[in-house]
Amino acid sequence: MNLKNVLTIIFVIFIGIFLFYTMLYLSKKQIEYKNDERWQFIQTKRNQVANLYYIIILSIATIAYVILSNSNKLIMIRLDKALECAFYILLFKMSFIDLFSVHYFDKHI
What we know:
Elements: H1 3-33, H2 37-70, H3 79-108
Helix pairs in contact: 1-3, 2-3
């Protein structure tokens, strides 16, 4: 097993633990607020932040596609690397973006 595989496994475990913590935090806050209007507003704001994240990621992908399709160079990307990148992008949203947005709006609203 080479260093890249070990780092990938450690990264996935780290994000998995962070995702588990995010789910526990969201469950705790939902029980704490008893699903009232403030919690509904925080959830709405969290979804807005998630949608903005997706818009930014799709914009970057679109710009990269336009630039690469108009160049004369042929760039090959392996399918497993593209899927790995998409996997990390989704995990980043599910763990970090959700946790930090709920934490931010919980403190500032």
